[in-house]
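Recap quiz, item 2
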Amino acid sequence: MAFDKQLFDSIIEEFTVAPEELRTIAADFRYDLKQGLADPEQSSLRMLKSYLGLPTGKEQGEYLALDFGGTNVRVLRIRLEGEGKFEILKKVAKPLIVEGEYDYIGASSTKDQMFGLLAELIDEAVEGNHEQKYLLGHTFSFPSSQTDVNNARLIIWTKEFATPGVEGEVVNDLLKEALDKRGLTNVEPVAVLNDTVAVLLSAAYKQSGTYIGSIYATGHNTCYLEPNVDGVPMILNLESGGFMKLLPSRFDNVIDEQSEKPGEQRLEKMVSGRYMGELYSLALSELLGTKDKWKSYGFTAIDLSGILADEGKERSEVQKIVAERTGVSLTAADAEMARDLAVAISKRSARLVTATFVGIIWQLTGSGKVQQQHIAVDGSVYEKMPFVKENIMRALSELLGEEAAQVDTVLDNGGSGLGAALAAAMARA
Ligand code: BGC
């Protein structure tokens, strides 16, 4: 078959963010940020207080770090050595869902199963030691409203998590209960923080000049150091994935309607790894003229990366991946278009994410000059998806002009764990 060229062009057009649109999005993001500082009710950004500033770099001691935010849970025992140095003493991990075996994130799971698994992993990380006292930092990567560094109430699940009984609860109470049940009374949770905050702490521990932290993975979100919150510098978790002033395509609208939480996380659903493969599925099914128009072929962000990485003339890898998912063998010409579709979706993602970074930079800069700085980013999309970093750099230049030279993005791999340990140390400083 040959794809309908007109339809193809119109789809690509829908996924294209033109330069003036990019600028408007960055400006709107800045506007929402400003509104949110005055009154979060007036903004599509949640602007959640972390009760944390940046680390001094001198933090020391041994801590437990629980990293909970995706389908894989990790617990680390970390020794902070100061001067940006640290050592991982132990690392254990377990998925919250294993197909055909168990699922602790679906609607039929229970909070006891979920938090029971966390306690089980913590037990493994301390190697069954129920005597020695441990302070624990908990990276909890969902929108939570905090009253202090240790009290975080889950506002709403994102990333299609659906475990009942957790929304509206104080997560540390649930964790404490699960720890007590296992006899782990020697483990004391002292800090809860978002993964973006953890990444910022981790990057700032190692390198000064970092004020923005972001996750670009299954989910997406960004935080930054606001110089003045009630008189002190404090990291604010923007929950930027909830930003709304966007021009969604018809595919984005379908994804939203079919999601666990329609109307929520509109930016996240346009840019993050959890949804990009799905967007690709929907658009491709239209091109393939599939009967069930909104058929999901189950493409993932990993498939998209594979498709993007195929720079060969024949696009044989594209053909292979598409055939595996859809059962259709594409001609070389159609495979070319199928790759262009992946290019358009991932490029849009990187451009939208960059517009939010620039919105923050504009807000921090005011009418002055952009300060030299690093934006710390962690996550599989940023790290592994081809051309994402280049597209971010290009969009930064487009929006900041010459001043883009002041800004770079740095990968802070695994920052969630180190950040949690730092938060625990800072909470007890
Ligand atoms: C959550 C954020 C989190 C991000 C990255 C989003 O779905 O709402 O709190 O930072 O995912 O994990």
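The longest helix spans residues 332-365.
The chain has two domains: 5-46+210-411, 60-193.
End of item.
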